[in-house]
Amino acid sequence: MGRFIIEGGNTLKGEIEISGSKNSALPILASTVLLKGVSVINNCPQISDVFKMIEILRILGCEVEFSKGTVVIDSTNADCCEIPSCISEKMRSSVVFMGAVLGRFNEVITGYPGGCEIGERPIDFHIKAFSKMGVDFEENGCYIRGFGNCFLGTDINLDFPSVGATENIMILGAVSKGITTIYNAAKEPEIVDLQNFLNKAGAKITGGGTDTIYIEGVKELFGTEYNIQRDRIEAGTFMCAVAATGGKAFLKYAKAEDMRQTVLRLSETGCIIKEYNDGIYIKRENILKPVNIIRTEPYPGFPTDMQPQIMSVLTLAKGTSIIIETVFESRFKHILELCKMGADISFNERTAVIKGVPKLKGGFVNCRDLRGGASLIIAGLSASGRTFVDNSVYVERGYENIVEKICLLGGCIKLQK
Ligand code: UD1
To answer: For the whole model, what pTM was predicted?
Structure first.
């Protein structure tokens, strides 16, 4: 549903403000069901994933208002522990409600989480960790029920530093008895943001941002006010758009230290990048250079969420680049679409070989997932002629005002609903 229509060829120039982080907002919003009283979350992006989280909060009985980037959640009358499958299957992040709802009601009933089709995306780490904390589970093929009387802190060693599992354990651990220690925890900046939020609400969590997180359980958490950090993936996406179109821009509030690999790799392509306290400046002057092998990895490695966007840039480099996707299988769906626009990319399940071409050409392409959709927009902006990007809904899941921001930078794009 929905279609972006892009007139390619304009270089992006100017200044935009980076929005609040989607991947911080989602777990923070979910955890508010556990907080007594009223929470105020500022800097929340107006994107469809956030709207769906708010819908779930309302189903659980919370009163929620969302205006001008501020979400006010009153969880006082929350009385429901069930997330219907028709909602949970619309987004992967519904899974982070499990810890919060269990912590609040000692029970959760939820349909399986959905989200972008970028791989199997099982939830076995979540279930295994919760089981170790004393949660019992029943499943009937459509729904999972988790329940228990008392949840106990314990040592949890994640097989892979899963972002969602780390967040879920932090949230339930915050109100469990005793100390929960997460080994091989995810280290993403969004984990630190969640830790800071929960601590402001009364939790006792340390170690966020390192691979070991300690959570000393407390009896209760209380509503608080919090400003969500800026979205490093949105910032990286705009950096790629500037690089691909040969422009220059200042991205206000982008924080280079949280996106070191993206900054380094775009520097390798020949872009000039300057870091300031209040943002990042990027300029591309010369022909783009290819880069050494990029492997996507958990933070602080190169983010899988930036893989499709940097691929669009590399389709225009003078030479051959290689990208290896190690985090998700099936995260190459944008490649066939980029090839429709004249890109020269060969790939197998995990490895893509990108031979740069002088120019892409406009075409008819399809979004298959959020970041893949962003990569097609970048390609369309740099291409000659007009590009029609179908299924804009995927992009609207995660980019606030993307059309307005691109237009502000001089790009020519509109959204046909
Ligand atoms: C989060 C991000 C997403 C990002 C991803 C990896 C949010 C809302 N989403 O997703 O944008 O692409 O981190 O940086 O923050 N896995 C299992 N079993 C599990 C859980 C995960 O096998 O129980 C696997 C996944 O299939 C995947 C890998 O672990 O291959 C990483 O997944 P995970 O870090 O959990 O990603 P999400 O939290 O879903």
So the answer is: 0.97
